[in-house]
Design goal:
Helix content of chain A: 40-55%
CATH superfamily of the largest domain in chain A: Cytochrome-c3 Hydrogenase, chain B
Distance between the termini of chain B: 50 Å
Largest sheet of chain B: 5 strands, parallel
Strand order of the largest sheet of chain A: 1-2-5-4-3
Order of helices and strands of chain B: HHEHEEHEHEH
Number of domains of chain B: 1
CATH architecture of chain B: 3-Layer(aba) Sandwich
CATH architecture of the largest domain in chain A: Orthogonal Bundle
Helix content of chain B: 25-40%
Number of strands of chain B: 5
Number of strands of chain A: 15
Strand content of chain A: 15-25%
Radius of gyration of chain A: 22 Å
CATH class of chain B: Alpha Beta
Oligomer: heterodimer
Structural class of chain A: alpha+beta
Number of helices of chain B: 6
Number of domains of chain A: 2
Chain lengths: 514, 171
């Protein structure tokens, strides 16, 4: 059994990028995954579905990022003995995904960490919310249970628990540091605090309204997720959006990238004791958000992307306004970058802090911005472009150092590139309509939407049910890949540097917890 | 260093606009002055994300940018609920955050206010109540005021602070 199986039996999967789907048995599942790993593929995401009402089986899906395409392996798992072969050995990201699948569906990987991940005691361990016979409205009294963190033993080792409520306006999560003096020996994360049952909630929504929930999976990446959802839906419906729609969506995505990067650059300055950076960059971001409000009707572009199109078009005066704004942002960012680069105190904090070496990044399968700061040349806008990125020819940022300084530089590089792309999009905005009909969708088909958001690649896997209902919808944020890399980057650093290092990753909690 | 100073000088004070104008900056200033009269420089806020999507957090963070300049008005975010007058709660309260939220509320000194921020905090939003969420904040801890919006804009948050502190008798 080999990769030939994919070539021979792979069926095209409706998606906005080249994608194939292959049904495998348990032995092929492991064998093909191993070969994909040897061929340099990364595991994008893993999800399960309860199809016992259809064929008495559960299904597990593994989506791999192979150069130039996505390959989805599909494994049927017996309804009465729901166990499947673990992918954790070759793909570390699988560990937490498999724990989450068990918490929600009660199908278990045959080896690896079996501690709960998303279930903290809010529902009984023998009840599985994503099963079709689980009523979404079921409310169970919360029972708080101790979580078995891995203990570090040794003279002078002590633990520092942090969270779930953090000392700032940040999302909830728990960090358990094992330290000697100020030096971190080990960090263990516990996430899932923001779990809102997104996947179950999708199943109560019509297909044509799911984009609104997708937009709220992760508020800072609302454009990326709503585009991914709409792309999956449009692929399922065989709908083609106009070139003008594609351009406006890309403009929104690049604006989201710029706004988040600019905000992070300010916060990173602040976390290194340089309040001037926060003041300048946050003012820059605010001006951008105000223009978003004026032009697109919403500061964060929430619900701007809708099935078949975008909520509002732009006129020539607005295009001029946005072009002028771009010139201003570029001027400011160039000036501030020079100040950051030349500031010895700031660079002293940035350089060498929280290093994620290229080799660990590769083994862990780091994604997106974090990967690109550690030598992983992967940006879906470049490697797997969907409309309109094929014509735009973006350039991916790349740094090898993997420290806070590298993640700062990647952000600066990406802001400059996004400004260039925004200018191109505005100057060459095609004429045409900004809405296309999204017709009826055949039930029992799966469609994928994949978008390179500001953190990295996000995916929506959408299965239509009848009639016009969502049967299953899985959303994936690249933070699943990157949270475990923070555990590596912090080792040997001092506790007071953690806020700075964590900010340089700036990973999603809600986007991850789902 | 010279570049930094030049830039600070060129940027000026962004939140300072003529009081008679109808610009948002003028309104910001009015709200600041009011809060200052009531609280001196002592109003302290603790934010708790009880399961939000991170949208509301972005707008709460925006309150501290130079345009809204919350800290300039003497209102600061604090790291512990024990130091706070106001608990700003976002999100449809997730089952996994319920206990932490209750504990944060319990340790706050009296008098205290709770503001439920965003559509989710105010009414459960698109997530509603489910196996994973308890819905609106008011169903978990007593709420003094709500700021609807998805997410609510910083000005709406400021106005809520103004309102709640003008009617200190309420819950």
């Amino acid at each position: 059994m080999s990769l030939e199986l994919i070539a021979q039996e792979g069926r095209r999967l409706p998606a906005n990028v080249p994608a194939r789907r292959v049904a495998v048995d348990a032995q092929q599942w492991t064998a093909v995954a191993r070969q994909l790993q040897e061929a340099g593929a990364g595991l994008f995401t893993l999800w399960g579905a309860d199809d016992r009402d259809r064929d008495g089986m559960f299904h597990v899906f593994a989506a791999f990022l192979v150069p130039g395409e996505l390959v989805v392996l599909e494994l049927a798992v017996a309804g009465d003995r729901p166990v499947y072969p673990s992918l954790e050995r070759g793909f570390p990201v699988a560990a937490r995904l498999q724990r989450a699948i068990h918490d929600l569906l009660g199908i278990r990987a045959d080896e690896g960490d079996a501690r709960p991940w998303l279930r903290h005691g809010g529902w009984p361990e023998d009840r599985f919310p994503l099963r079709k016979d689980f009523d979404a409205a079921t409310a169970c009294p919360g029972v708080s249970r101790p979580y078995p963190f891995v203990r570090v033993e040794g003279e002078g080792v002590h633990e520092i628990p942090v969270g779930p409520i953090h000392a700032g306006t940040i999302e909830p999560g728990h960090f358990r540091f094992s330290v000697v003096g100020e030096k971190v020996l080990r960090l263990e994360e516990r996430l899932g605090y923001a779990h809102k049952g997104v996947a179950k909630r999708f199943e109560a929504l019509p297909l044509l309204e799911g984009h609104r929930l997708a937009a709220r999976v992760c508020g800072d990446s609302t454009v990326a997720f709503s585009w991914a959802y709409c792309a999956a839906l449009e692929a399922l419906a065989g709908a083609t959006v106009s070139p003008r729609t594609a351009s406006l969506r890309a403009l929104a995505l690049e604006r989201e990238r710029i706004a988040n990067h600019v905000g992070d650059l300010g916060a990173l300055g602040n976390d290194a004791g340089f309040a001037f950076g926060l003041t300048q960059f946050s003012a820059l971001k605010e001006r951008m958000l105000r223009l978003n409000r004026e032009v697109f009707g919403q500061r964060y572009l929430m619900d701007y992307i809708v099935p078949g199109g975008v909520r509002s078009d732009v006129g020539p005066r607005t295009v001029r306004l946005l072009l002028d704004e771009g010139v201003g942002i570029e001027r400011d960012v160039v000036a501030l970058r020079a100040i950051y680069d030349e500031h010895a105190g700031l660079q002293d904090r940035f350089k060498g802090a929280g290093q994620l070496t290229p080799s660990i990044a590769k083994t862990q399968g780091a994604f997106g911005l974090v990967g690109r700061a550690s030598g992983i040349e992967q940006d879906l806008r470049v490697t797997m472009p969907w409309a309109p990125y094929g014509e735009l020819r973006p350039t991916a940022a790349l740094r090898m150092e993997g420290d806070v300084a590298a993640r700062v530089q990647v952000r600066f590089d990406e802001v400059m590139e996004s400004l260039r792309l925004s200018r191109l999009l505005l100057e060459q905005l095609p004429q045409g309509s900004t809405s296309a009909p999204v017709a009826a969708v055949d039930s029992d088909r799966i469609g994928l939407g994949v978008v390179e958001g500001w953190r990295g690649p996000v995916m929506v896997a959408l299965e239509a049910g009848a009639p016009s209902a969502i049967r299953r919808c899985h959303v994936h944020d690249p933070s699943w890949q990157n949270w475990p890399t923070v555990d590596h980057a912090i080792i040997g650093n001092i506790v007071p540097d953690f806020p700075l290092i964590n900010k340089s990753f700036n990973l999603a909690y809600s986007g991850h917890d789902g | 260093m010279l570049n930094i100073i030049k830039r600070i000088r060129r940027t000026g004070i962004l939140s300072d606009a003529p009081p008679e104008s109808d610009q948002p900056e003028a309104r910001v200033r009015g709200i600041h002055e009011h809060l200052h009269r009531v609280f001196g420089r002592a109003l302290r806020i603790r934010h708790v994300d009880a399961g939000s999507c991170n949208g509301c957090e972005l707008e709460i963070q925006a309150l501290t940018n130079p345009y809204y300049n919350l800290e300039g008005a003497g209102i600061a975010f604090v790291a512990s609920p024990r130091h706070a007058d106001i608990l700003l709660v976002t999100g449809p309260v997730s089952v996994n955050m319920e206990e932490a939220l209750k504990r944060a509320y319990d340790v706050m000194p009296e008098p205290r206010w709770v503001i439920a921020v965003g559509d989710c905090g105010a009414c459960g939003g698109i997530f509603g109540t489910s196996y994973a969420t308890r819905g609106r904040v008011g169903d978990v801890i007593p709420v003094s005021a709500t700021v609807p919006g998805c997410p609510p804009e910083p000005m709406a948050l400021l106005q809520c602070l103004l309102h709640i502190t003008s009617h200190p008798g309420q819950p």
